[in-house]
Amino acid sequence: MDRRKFLSSAAFGAVATTAVGKSALARLPEPEIQTSAATAPPRMPDSGRPYNPVVTLNGWTAPWRMNNGVKEFHLVAEPVEREIAPGMVARLWGYNGQSPGPTIEVVEGDRVRIFVTNKLPEHTSIHWHGQRLPNGMDGVAGLNQRAIPVGKTYVYEFVARRPGTFMYHPHADEMVQMAMGMMGFWVTHPKEAHPAINEVDRDFCFLLGAYDIDPGSVVPKVNTMTDFNLWTFNSRAFPGIDSLNVRHNDRVRIRVGNLTMTNHPVHLHGHEFEVTGTDGGPTPPGSRWPEVTTDIAVGQMRQIEFIADEEGDWAFHCHKSHHTMNPMGHDVPTMIGIDHRGLVGRIQRAAPDYMLMGERGMADMGEMQMLLPEQTLPMMTGTGPWGPVEMGGMFTMLKVRANQQPGDYSDPGWYAQPAGTQAFEWTGELPEPARFKAEREAGSTPVKVEMRVRKPQGGGHAGHH
Ligand SMILES: [Cu+2]
């Protein structure tokens, strides 16, 4: 159905209530608890103003009930089990059964009431990142409200005043609760055609997350400040992250929020995009320029848009290469160029599990049949149609297909590249490298070592670095 018609026919009056209506709270809305980490199809609004719903990557949108013109949601803060990727389930804290919690979708001008029940072992609160709201609804424990005690339910209520992309997270024992996975997305759709907000065919959202979970264990270390070992899109690591499946020539929007402790330059292959919004609102159209990578700082949201006009399977990932790896990648010494011959056998006599890695780079890790402790993801993993992808963490794919039907978000499988359009092996003669040629003509034997280490010579600043 055409969204323009939807919008122009929408005729919902503003709700005049200004204070929390205590009589309306007699019965709480039933919270929807999610047990799956799959990407749920878009939840079409069944009441209130119409809008084009988002798709939360490996997540879902919360249901609401209408109560005298107020949209009521129920979030339950609680310990959850989240499958980070097949083979690894983490014990996190989240909302309504998962981490992140459900995406909240409302329309500009909606009056929203959110019941928050605390089933954690300690107090909590929720801050509605980026929202215009009364000071007492901003959720900073101690500053704006008392923290929600264990076992209690608090009510937040405000009008979603401006359209855009927001996040929610605790503002009480924040370091621990966010390290444990407590966060969620919030989208406020425009109530009518907006000069800086495009109508799009596909609208995806997810949060960047980071965890420090020792191989073999299940609970994040909450005091870690920078040295995380699991990098996630919506608490999923590749190959556990679903692909973003779109139809050729769709206008696609992807909203990405960062609630980790470091920045993430998110990079899309095969297309240029524009940043069309931040958590501060839509960017003015005249301020936009083409990019293929956009850096998302801590506590920021970036909304990118592009026309998916190149068919194929396109990588979409954080460009920090350590963030496209799973645990074990960080403490491995660099072994490139070290000759280990004879050494492995001797070490294995003392340590039978010892495995040699990294002598020729680390690409072998993608294929290695290594016995991993339970609850541990391989460092570089995922298999594509042409072999190991050698990625982990913050990596997925944009799949663009001519025959992906509107509204179909299912995985179309691997792209069938047209004949003659793939990189191929050169089997002809190779010209002699000029350097070797010069050495031969000078009478010396070409050196066959592939890599030569050159140390700085002499003192001062004369050496090469
Ligand atoms: Cu990153």
TrEMBL record:
SUPFAM superfamilies: Cupredoxins
Molecular function GO terms recorded: copper ion binding; oxidoreductase activity
InterPro entries: Cu-oxidase-like_N (IPR011707), Cu-oxidase_C (IPR011706), Cu-oxidase_fam (IPR045087), Cupredoxin (IPR008972)
Keywords assigned: Copper, Metal-binding, Oxidoreductase
Matching Pfam families: Cu-oxidase_2, Cu-oxidase_3
Regions that span the bilayer: none
Domain Plastocyanin-like: 84-192, 219-332
Protein name: Copper oxidase
